[in-house]
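Our preliminary data section would be incomplete without showing what the modeling component actually yields. Below, a chain of 452 amino acids is followed by its predicted structure, encoded as tokens that our downstream tools consume directly.
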Amino acid sequence: MEPTSTSPTPKALSVSQLNQRAKQTLERDVGEVWVEGELSNVSRPASGHIYFTLKDDRAQIRCALFRQRARFVAAPMRDGDQVKLRGRVSLFEPRGDYQLIAEAVQAAGLGELLAAFERLKAQLEGEGVFANTRPLPFPPRKILILSSANGAAIRDVLAVLAARWPLADVTLIPVPVQGAEAAPAMISALGLLNRQARLDPEQDVVLITRGGGSLEDLWAFNNEHLARAIFHSRLPVMSAVGHEVDVTLADFAADMRAPTPSAAAERLVPDQHALKRQLAQAEQRLHRSIQARLERDSQRLDTLRARLRHPGEQLARQRQHLTTLQQRLTRAMQQTLAQQKAHVAQLTRRLASQDMARLHRAESERISSLQRRLASAMQRLLETRQARLHSAARELNAVSPLAVLGRGYAIAQDTQGQVIRRAEDTQPGQLLKLRLGEGRLNVEVKRRYKKH
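Predicted structure:
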């Protein structure tokens, strides 16, 4: 062993600290770059990420394209493909692997078009051309479609619209969707539709669509003037160009973007089958609610019917009360008379033991006075009892249905004694009984009249 040194040992970094510094240095000093090379060892695990090697004839580098970015790559990535990719140089710390984190991948040779796309996108975004966010009418009354009349996209759109919402009025404005004449044709058609919209308020929304294709095939939808025309359109515009990974300036300028033509049709109109199911469920809930209400009201009606008493019973109670009052009045008068008679007898006996002439005169005067008081008291008592009797009679008459009958009304009953309240509860030819203020009638229904 070598002899130990007496000088202090410098503080050492851990492996993870070293890798962390290396990663920070690479990401800071190199940053984002464009790299061209050949794909090899392309791997797609269940996570959705894509791992591969990018190489040329002298070197190679490990690369990772994470799932969030991988879904925007239009062309399939296969071993041997020559590609350009934009990414950040980094380092995978656990293994110390130097790698490139890819942000975008394109076939080699498309760099100039993408660069032009990015420049024009940044310019239009800075001018606010991508600021449209108007809500689309739902469901629209009239849909105006700018697309090729022979493409698969229009067939998909029309099929979805017919299946989901056949009430929509769909008008196809055939325009070329590829080549040099495509953008001017779409701009002209969009201008014409906006001028017509001033005269026809039924026009609701414009759909600009076509199927998938290469970047060159879709380049007409990256036209600066078309993007501006979409931005200035008075009618709201939905754009559905290509597949989900295809993004154009027309998509950014539109009020809404759909990933595919079929998805655009699904977003434009509701699903009639879903609405029918909702209506059926609402109908069932309404039926259950009505049934529950009828059951509650039926129970309440049964309770009220059980509490209802026949008018005859009420009259009988009132008659009984009146009889009781009369009996009490008779007993009171008899008791008063008996008391007065006893008092007279006592006075008569006292009179016998006194000076008859003087007593006779005194008692005669006293008797006359008592008779007058008795007559007055009986008169007042009789008047009071009569007033109470008349009051009770008036109250009785107020609640008596006979008083109503006395004013010219009648109670109609069927042969089972059930009261008839509505004309529609009878049938022509049915026999009825009418109870009047005085007497009864048997009648036959000749004709019913509805209530006006």
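The chain has four domains: 15-109, 128-270, 311-399, 406-444. The chain has a mean pLDDT of 85. Preliminary results of this kind motivate Aim 1 of the renewal.
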